[in-house]
Amino acid sequence: MYTQALDVPDIAAQQAAPHAHGASPAEANFLARIARDEKIEPQDEMPEDYRKSLIRQISQHAHSEVVGMLPEGNWITRAPSLKRKEILLAKVQDEGGHGLYLYSAAETLGASRDDLVDALHSGKAKYSSIFNYPTDSWADIGTIGWLVDGAAIMNQVPLCRCSYGPYARAMIRVCKEESFHQRQGFDIVRALCEGTAAQKQMAQESVNRWWWPTLMMFGPHDSDSEHTGQASAWGIKRISNDDLRQRFVDVTVPQAAFLGLTLPDALLKWNADRGHYDFGPIDWNEFWRVVKGDGPCNAERLNDRVQAFDDGGWVREAAAAHADKRARRAVSAASVRIAA
Ligand code: BYC
After folding, report:
1. Which of 52, 85, 92, 98 is the most buried (most CB within 10 A)?
2. Atom number of ligand 1 nearest to Cα 156
3. Could you tell me the distance, in angstroms and rounded to a whole number, from the CA of residue 61 to the centre of ligand 1?
4. Which ligand 1 atom is the nearest neighbour of the CA of 95?
5. pTM value?
6. Do the Cβ atoms of 249 and 32 come closer than 8 Å?
7. In whole angstroms, what is the distance from residue 128 CA to residue 134 CA?
């Protein structure tokens, strides 16, 4: 259900034209390319603000993938069977891989990996609010896969069509892997719902905790979203925060019904006039508190990330020494060939 390509409206084509008015020839050319839905590649001319905005979004996305390994990593040693452990290990490794593709995509825009990582470690850069909540039970691993990865796919499928080539291409592979993640999560929740009453209760309790934070993943309402207008005009954002959130609610409600679970929102109700589910208000105070560093696990997540980075220092040193040795060997082999 999450993997199918979304019917994406061409926001860029609709919005780029007005911005071309009064633009320099270089900007007008850039906007015309966006309107034609051409991919912008690293060597192409691009407005400085476009480059900066992409570095902001892509690096925060990379940080989210890497920090996102922590809540689930917490359960690798406690997975209930060898099969579940293998699947979870593979999923967490995938998230690390997504972080690496995304840091590489940001580097194509001239960003330095060290600067990006420093920004995360110093608390300057954001990462997704969702990873600042604790994983208290095994059911949380299922809920993260089902809801959190489900929300991530909803947001990321349109990014496969984003105007910046390296980001769009990275997203294609990421979405394929996220689709497996979503299914494994759904499978965990389904197994719990088909199990004992206590197991089903564990699933329900987990969904009660994760539902609202998952809806917050899509970001502030469109009316409060600082970047949506410009990001849409540049073809980075194809669907707005509120529209993605609504699509997510619409596909998830029937899934919860299939599982026999209740979503914790008394105002959740099908609205035949709109052709969508209505849902209750989001607690934006909680959202901004968590985004600004005061969520249940913000401090723990950053400490763990910094610790993991420091612990991996010897690997980076060894890899650099190995690359240096290979480079020196290649130079001496080339000079032997020239001499011969
Ligand atoms: N959490 O103007 P807005 C995953 C910030 S990884 C924190 O709407 P924009 C997974 C926003 O950055 C999923 N901050 O921004 C991994 C901005 O602040 P700055 C991660 C948030 O960029 C492992 C300010 O609020 N996905 O799923 O137009 C295991 C104003 O917002 C959040 C991505 O990163 C938030 N939830 O739209 C399992 C996708 N929401 O930057 C799963 C790529 C908003 O001005 N990113 N903010 O300081 C995007 O699509 C967009 O950046 C967003 C926000 C929709 C997130």
Report:
1. 98
2. 39
3. 7
4. 23
5. 0.91
6. no
7. 14
What lies within 8 Å, CB to CB, of 130 at 6+ separation is: 68, 148, 151, 213, 214, 216, 217
What pLDDT is recorded for position 21? Answer: 57
- Residue type, position 76, single letter: I
Nearest to 39 by CA among 174, 159, 177: 159
Measured between alpha carbons, how far is 228 from 234 in angstroms, rounded to an integer? Answer: 10
Structure tokens at 235: 């073809």
Per residue in 82-139, pLDDT tens? 999 999 999 999 999 999 999 999 999 999 999 999 999 999 999 999 999 999 999 9
Four-residue CA torsion sign, 261, 298, 91, 231: positive
pLDDT, mean of residues 188-200: 98
Question: Does the pLDDT value for residue 26 go beyond 50?
Answer: yes
Q: Which two tokens stand for residue 13?
A: 């084509």
In this prediction, what percent of the chain has a pLDDT beyond 70? 94
Task: List pocket residues of ligand 1, CB cut-off 6 Å.
Answer: 56-57, 60-61, 64-65, 68, 95, 126, 128-129, 148-149, 152, 155, 216-220, 225-228, 231, 237, 241, 291
Q: Which atom of ligand 1 is nearest to the CA of 128?
A: 1
Best residue among 64, 88, 101, 163 to mutate for probing ligand 1's pocket (most ligand atoms within 8 Å of CB) is 64
Q: How many residues does the chain have?
A: 340
- Ligand 1 center to residue 200 CA distance, Å? 32
Nearest ligand 1 atom to alpha carbon 149: 42
CA distance 229 to 233: 6
Give CA–CA dist 306/3, Å, rounded.
34
Distance of alpha carbon 242 from alpha carbon 227, whole angstroms: 13
Residue 339: what pLDDT?
80
Structural contact between residues 88 and 75, judged by C-beta atoms closer than 8 angstroms: yes
Q: How far is the CA of 16 from the centre of ligand 1 (A)?
A: 23
Atom of ligand 1 at shortest range from CA of 65: 16
